[in-house]
């Protein structure tokens, strides 16, 4: 196409990129264990009449294949080439966040309007918003350069952008995602060089918005009350969310150190959403402390690796992306684990890579792909 | 960035600590939480049958059906349908079950009620038609809000036959669909008949549904054992029939007959009047019908007790059959007046004569010779004053106020010697006289003979001897005396042509509130045969006969009426017909 001659066709293909081996392993291992665990966690659905390997597991497998492929592609394609598009993508997704409020809820067991449904496939725009927001904040922060030191840019523009997105997510309502977006946005703006006092001044506003959001739905308070009740050693209220924590507790206790074995857990028949929010409890029962400990350590290691990559990246864009990506993923994972272990009120947050849900899996893997690409550039820069 | 790292590691630490706490420290305690998701439910065992000695069924459990209505459902579901109402449903049920439609309408009429029993013990055929009507697609004939529930029924195919032996069952408090024995063999052998319920336990999900993994155990129920009785349905039938006849003939209020094999203690038949149908037990109030008089009704044995007095004296070598006495027909003993029933004096009366004339003063002569200490020893050794241990519930001990009792006075020895002032049960009397027929060995009366477990294993209930009461020679001598005494009686209504039997009549007044009432007596006869080798003993008791009063006139003929067919049923050969 460019008319170059004297090269074999093979040389024109992009070279297989050198990858950060740890991230590459995680990219394969986490979604694979997710598929396996979802298969186990879906066993209770046989009681509702579906077959043992119901479509959920099959879909999870398909999403995992698509997601891993996407991660490999994104890890190979320089993010600088497309990151300019992020603000536009974010704008489109913002519209999607509004549009998703219009139809009736189409996913069972919840009144939240978070999903578009096309046949059996559900799409959750708020998941994709994570990806777009992290990239948009990164690209804008880079553009602002040293302007970031002024509050008009740090708080006014970037903060404003994050605030709008959070506001739209709160409308669904999806408090958990909103909170993780707030933290990862915060982390990125801070990393970009915003002043502490500027950022700190937004905290009261965030607190007020948080309380107002909690007040919109009675169940939010019920969850929080149930949480504090369990914290103070009170009997968990079996009818509300205390139930979930109690069942997870039993699952962990039954799992012990090495677990009851794959597929052998019975608590998945008793927790609320075994394949999604409560999959960590399923891991706890079937694989014991070995399983849950490993998952915890892997996410912490991912975070540490991400910060390492950020630190070694001389490119502001790369650094911001790395911080945003690992903050988002790890925070989500930790919140999910904290909820399951009764350390945090229920939020409806899936465990990244592992919980059932195509949107979450695709976005997490895409973030992983970008992180690997950032890692590659960081390394290359160091090497040259 | 350092801050973020610190935060992440700290968070991981907190979560990690929590994981360790739950997975390790509190694991044992927490895992107990799974037991809340273990359901257990019992599977009712099949109740064993009660069979007679030939294997005929006397009591058996059968599955039946109960028809249950959910009136709220009936009212709601029929509301929207033109052709259906609670009245059409009631009318249909009434037709299918042969019940009154009005009663059913009343039950269906309360739209708040969720449970109403329309009928129980419904047979398979109507139950099938009701089931079809429940499933019916036809709006007009569908039975709205009606369902069938499995039920169990205890069936007594022979109705009143051996009612007091069998007893009856009632609803079990422990298991709602099961029954528990409440009287008779049903109660006494309830542990064997009832079996052990099975247990299904399995893990369930939060909705209470069984889950495909986890704990699941099923313990099969141990079905009840069958109990085979010593009772023979034919003998039972004979005595039931003759008891009814006797009561009618002498216009008596109540009565009992017990037939045993004196050599084994086996009870071959046991009948009481009034009686009841154990299958319809709920129709009987807690009245005299339910009382097994053979074991639960104490009476004064009267002259039949003279055999005990005579046995004691013979065994102590104080008398021989030919010893004589000269007590007058009326005499004083210990400061109290006693007289013979005929008030006659028989000079130089032999001991056989004492039995022949059933002489009270002769009996006093014998008791006086024995002395109070020995006399009551023998009374006790014959089993009076304590339960015989026969199977059933509510067996009475009798009342013996013997020597040594602060309320015992010397004249009591005299009255007790001819069966007054003491209370015994018919089964005690049958057992004691059985000892005389059994060469002096007292046997425990036994109603059941074999327990057949659900797995086919048979557990025989062997006869058990209580003790030797008198020497063999004493017993044989006494039997000879009894036979001789009866032969000398002019008209012996207890006599059975072709067989040698021995027995004794008894007539006792009924003491009520400490006063004997002349007009009300208990007439009895106890006897056994054939004397070559006694195999059958019968005690006949007729209470308050209005037409006649003496045991010799009331109870003796009944003894003959039952023994004749029993001997022939048991194929006991007649002796040389010429004699």
Largest interface, and how many residues on either side? A-B, 45 and 37 residues
Number of helices of chain B: 19
The overall average pLDDT of chain A, rounded, is 83
Give the low-pLDDT segments of chain A: 380-384
- Give the CA-CA distance, first to last residue of chain A: 30 Å
- Residue windows where pLDDT falls under 50 for at least 5 positions of chain B: none
Distance between the termini of chain B: 129 Å
Largest sheet of chain B: 7 strands, mixed
State the shape of chain B: elongated
Number of domains of chain A: 2
Tell me the number of strands of chain B: 23
Task: Sum up the structure in keywords.
heterodimer; A: 384 residues; mainly alpha; 2 domains; two-stranded antiparallel sheet; 13 helices; 2 strands; globular; disordered C terminus; B: 579 residues; alpha+beta; Penicillin-binding protein 2a (Domain 2); Beta-lactamase; 7-stranded mixed sheet; 5-stranded antiparallel sheet; 34% helix
What does this structure look like?
The complex is a heterodimer of chains A (384) and B (579). Chain A is mainly alpha-helical. Chain A folds into 2 domains: 19-76 and 217-384, no CATH class; 104-211, no CATH class. Helices cover 66% and strands 2% of the residues of chain A. Chain A is built from 13 helices and 2 strands, in the order ααααββααααααααα. Chain A has helices at 9-12, 21-41, 55-76, 86-99, 125-144, 151-171, 175-192, 196-216, 218-231, 242-255, 279-312, 316-340, 358-383, and strands spanning 116-118, 121-123. In chain A, strands 1-2 form a two-stranded antiparallel ribbon. Chain A is globular. Mean pLDDT of chain A is 83; it is low at 380-384. Chain B is an alpha+beta fold and 579 residues long. Chain B folds into 2 domains: 45-155, Penicillin-binding protein 2a (Domain 2); 234-569, 3-Layer(aba) Sandwich (Beta-lactamase). Chain B is built from 19 helices and 23 strands. In chain B, the strands form 7 sheets. In chain B, strands 2, 3, 4, 5, 10, 18 and 19 form a 7-stranded mixed β-sheet that branches. In chain B, strands 12-11-23-22-21 form a 5-stranded antiparallel β-sheet, with helices on both faces. A 3-stranded antiparallel β-sheet of chain B has the order 1-8-9, with no helix packed on it. In chain B, a hairpin with a 5-residue loop joins β2 (50-51) and β3. In chain B, α10 (233-249) runs antiparallel to α19 and α14 packs across α16 (410-417). The A-B interface holds A 43-44, 46-47, 187, 191, 246-247, 249-250, 252-257, 263-264, 266-267, 269-270, 284, 288-289, 292-293, 296-297, 299-300, 303-304, 307, 310-311, 323, 327, 330, 334, 337-338, 341-343 and B 1, 4-5, 8-9, 11-12, 14-16, 18-20, 22-24, 26-34, 37, 203-207, 209, 211-215.
